[in-house]
Each structure stands twice: as C-alpha cells, then as structure tokens.
Design goal:
With 234 residues, this protein is mostly helical. The protein is globular. It contains 13 helices and no strands. The termini are far apart.
C-alpha cells in the first residue's frame, strides 16, 4: 500500500529523491522549500518529511553539515517564510479574499481567523505549523486579518523553532535506527499522520469547551441557595 502511494506521488514530493537530486545543495534546497511552503501560497510541498529526511541524512553523513547549523538555517527559513506570508496577507488581503467561491481564499476566512485566534490564542500559530496546507494559509489569513505584528512574530518564531528544529532533530535521532533507515518511506508517511495529532486533539478540546459553554443569550442558572430560599418563602 505504501509503495503504491509512493508510486503515485511525483518525484519532487519524495524527500529522499529530492535530497539526492540536490546533492551538495540539499540543505539550501530544503530551506528554500520550507520558505516557499510557509509563506508563498504553495502548500503542496514535502515540508515535514523533508525536514525529517535532512536530519536522517546528517546522521548518516550524506549531508556534511553540523546539525546545529542545519537547525538554525531551517528555523530561520520557516520563520521568514511565515513573515512573508503575513505581509502578503496584510498588503493584499482584501484582494486575495474577494471571491466568495474561491477554494481556499474565501472572505469568510478573515472573520474565522479572528475568531480562531480569539478562541485558541497565540498557540494557534504553533499548532498550525504541524499541519500541512494549514501552515501555509494561516499566515496569509493572519496578515489579512491585521493580527498584531509583535504577537505574530513571537509565536510564529516559537512555532518555527519547535517545527523545523524539532522534526530535524527527530530525524537525526532516529536516523541511526536500522529499521527507520530501511523503511524510510513508511516512516515519513507515519510522520505526516503524527503531525495531525495536535490539531485533532485541539479540535476535540474545542468541541468539549463548546458543549460546556452556555449560549450567550441564555440566562445564568440561579444559585442553589437562592432557589432553596424562594422555595421556603412560598
């Protein structure tokens, strides 16, 4: 099944093929992919799996660059990508979100993003980092929604560090495990599935909070002691 998935994917979506093709430019090519995926409206790129593969290649010496330097370069690329996306949304937001029938950039997304940030707070930017496609468009929408730049820079920086550095370190740590090396394709697909866990958890937590929150027009329940007092006065 996994082999069939790999066969149906184009070569540029295969991180192992892509890194081998880039050769000595593997790290800088990865940084470019990360930058584009995080901010330039091109979400269909192998961000998570490419970061993991870079860590694995460094562990095996295929990429001859210090791990710490790779983490710094990739984190900066992720941060700058999101900053670019933010300002694209801030400058062109009203233009990007004019068509109500658009597949992704619908006007309602601006309002929903305001609500999204109000509900989840700054952690929305961190959680979105780990979800393919979402991490591309949340920065555009944040800019279009005029999110406070200082808050955006702080939390998107935290997200960039946790995502780019965290997944690269994970790939490096597991790179020496023979099973992972021999089944890289399966490991990368599993990584994508694991990356969805934070948003799934947050979704169910939000549903539970919504169930426990009374509607705005619903009057608060009378205190028990008041009800008892009224009953005694009858």
């Amino acid at each position: 099944m996994l082999s069939l998935v790999a066969m149906l994917m184009p070569n540029w979506m295969d991180p192992e093929y892509l890194l081998n093709w880039l050769g000595d430019w593997a790290l800088w090519g990865t940084a470019a992919v990360v930058f584009i995926e995080c901010g330039l409206l091109f979400p269909i790129l192998p961000g998570d799996s490419l970061l993991f593969a870079v860590g694995l290649f460094i562990a095996h010496g295929t990429i001859d660059i210090p791990l710490w330097l790779a983490c710094v370069i990739l984190t900066v690329a992720a941060f700058l990508g999101n900053v670019s996306g933010y300002y694209i949304g801030r400058v062109l937001g009203t233009t990007l979100f004019k068509n109500p029938n658009a597949r992704f950039l619908k006007p309602k997304y601006i309002e929903q993003t305001h609500e999204f940030f109000e509900r989840y707070g700054p952690r929305a930017l961190v959680l979105a980092r780990f979800v393919p496609i979402v991490r591309t468009f949340i920065t555009i929408v944040a800019g279009a929604g005029k999110m406070d730049p200082r808050k955006f820079f702080l939390w998107t920086g935290i997200g960039a560090l946790l995502w780019a550095t965290g997944i690269t370190l994970l790939g490096h740590a597991l790179g020496r495990v023979k099973f992972i090396h021999d089944h890289l394709e399966s490991a990368l697909i599993l990584l994508v599935l694991i990356s969805l866990i934070p948003m799934v958890v947050e979704y169910f937590l939000a549903r539970r909070r919504a169930r426990n929150t009374p509607p705005a027009d619903e009057p608060p329940a009378a205190p028990k002691h008041a009800a008892t007092t009224n009953h005694l006065n009858d």
